[in-house]
TrEMBL record:
Residues 54-333 form the Sema domain. This is Sema domain-containing protein. InterPro entries: Semap_dom (IPR001627), Semap_dom_sf (IPR036352), Semaphorin (IPR027231), WD40/YVTN_repeat-like_dom_sf (IPR015943). GO terms for biological process: motor neuron axon guidance; neural crest cell migration; positive regulation of cell migration; semaphorin-plexin signaling pathway.
Length: 333
């Protein structure tokens, strides 16, 4: 059986376009340009009409309206953006750098915190045959406001994930700063090893809920809760009835009633659906999973595992007697 599935694997990967996605990324130019539309103040002219919702906004319209601001960045891999509306800042998680810039004009006064992977880990990563530009660096993949004064940020650290609380005040101090390894903590269970893995996370009441692959080989896709005072809990490891090859899209807290004991956290993802697989091979489904925020894991069984984890396939259907069921099997961010 095991041999059979190995034979099937390469064809299927092509079928779902995994390899072509990777190829595209490899070809990506690393000089990225951050573009931000300053949307407040002066109304836009031209095609803009308030009565009609805008579904598209073209690059040339931006230029015409003089609303295009660019900030050329050498560090590339623009992955997470975090706007702070109150303080009018925009944080950008990049490769080896956390950028802080003005939300109103990104060209004004950008500040950089240089946060490289440790040189030992970079060496080990290279020895393992990984790519120096695209893998063996610190790709910031988790970026959240933690409290009034701090962000919580994690990076892949050249396949050795690390996290840090970062005081937003440090960006006032100097234009360029460096975060040393000693100022970071272990990021296992919080951030993927591999920067190509799709990840989703949220900080809810001082705890980090993270859908990640939490091992070097990216085989262990899991949903974790960590940080804060409660012990870490997660989904069962390598159990396809919990999660299998999940690609995480979004984590969202939801209060269903006035009672905080009823609060839930939802996670949206795409995963391999073994129950639906037949001769044709691998099948992907979009799903939503739910856990209770007050879950502390089981007592005798499911120790340090979610005891409230449930998941369902996402089905979007057209109502009515001959309504169609449309399945969006690949959720994207
Ligand atoms: C925010 O969290 C950090 C890290 O735990 C802590 O050092 C800091 O005192 C907190 N700030 C506030 C305002 O609670």
């Amino acid at each position: 059986m095991a041999e059979q599935s190995h034979l099937v694997e390469p064809q299927i990967e092509n079928q779902f376009g995994y390899s072509s996605v990777c190829m595209m990324r490899r070809k990506m130019c690393w000089l990225l340009t951050v573009v931000l539309v300053a949307h407040l103040g002066v109304p836009l002219t031209g095609a803009w009409r308030a009565a009609q919702p805008r579904l598209q906004f073209t690059h040339s319209e931006l230029i015409q309206n003089g609303r295009l601001l660019t900030l050329p960045l050498e560090a590339g891999d623009l992955h997470s953006l975090l706007p702070d509306e109150d303080r009018r800042r925009l944080y950008v998680g990049m490769k080896d750098n956390l950028l802080s810039t003005s939300l109103d004009d990104i060209t004004q006064n950008p500040r950089k915190l240089f946060w490289p992977a440790s040189p030992d880990r970079v060496q080990e990563c290279l020895m393992a045959g990984k790519d120096s530009e695209l893998e063996c660096a610190n790709f910031l993949r988790v970026l959240h406001p933690f409290n009034q004064t701090h962000l919580y940020v994690c990076g892949t650290g050249a396949f050795n994930p690390r996290c840090a609380f970062i005081a937003t005040s440090i960006f006032h101090q100097a234009e360029y700063q460096t975060l040393s390894y000693g100022q970071t903590e272990c990021g296992k269970g919080k951030c993927p090893y591999d920067p190509f893995q799709k990840t989703a996370s949220a900080v809810v009441d001082g705890e980090l809920y993270a859908g990640i692959t939490s091992d070097f080989m990216s085989r262990d896709s899991a949903f974790f809760r960590s940080l804060g005072s409660r012990h870490v809990i997660r989904t069962e490891q390598y159990d396809s009835t919990w999660l299998q090859d999940a690609q995480f899209v979004r984590v969202a807290p939801l209060s269903e009633t006035d009672n905080p004991e009823d609060d839930k956290v939802y996670m949206f993802f795409t995963e391999r659906a073994q129950e639906a697989e037949g001769a044709a091979g691998k099948v992907l489904y979009s799903r939503v999973a739910r856990v209770c925020k007050n879950d502390i894991g089981g007592q005798r069984s499911l120790v340090n595992k979610w005891s409230t984890f449930q998941k369902a396939r996402m089905v979007c259907s057209v109502p009515g007697p001959d309504g169609l069921q449309t399945h969006f099997d690949q959720l994207r961010k």
